[in-house]
Amino acid sequence: MATRSLQLGLDWGGTNVKWAVLAGEDVLEEGSEPTDRRGGEEAVRQLERVARDLAGRHAGVATVGIGVPGTYDPADGSLLRVVNVPGAWEGVPLAARVAAAVGVPAAVVNDARAWTLAEH
What we know:
Blueprint: E1 6-12, E2 16-23, E3 26-34, H1 40-57, E4 61-68, E5 70-73, E6 78-82, H2 94-102, E7 106-110, H3 111-119
Parallel strand pairs: 1-4, 4-7
Antiparallel strand pairs: 1-2, 2-3, 5-6
Helix pairs in contact: 1-2
């Protein structure tokens, strides 16, 4: 039996980190927890931990998408400005950090754009 290719979506907001593990259009798990309001490095560690925990529970996670409340460099997934989570964000390599934590490719997208794509 072939292993299913799963996608992990993280929505990083000023209030909550939300997630969903998807197999095509099937939602295998979804949930949320409060965003670490200490911000900065602690908030990045939270995203790494959530992604690692979910990938550990769901064999076959192939990619991670991270919706961020701000701007980012599309070339490398590093942050430029985050509007509602405290911290100095310019240059933080969020996509690379989450990818390293999970061991699969990760990409960053603006959260409003992610919502629009999901609705489409």
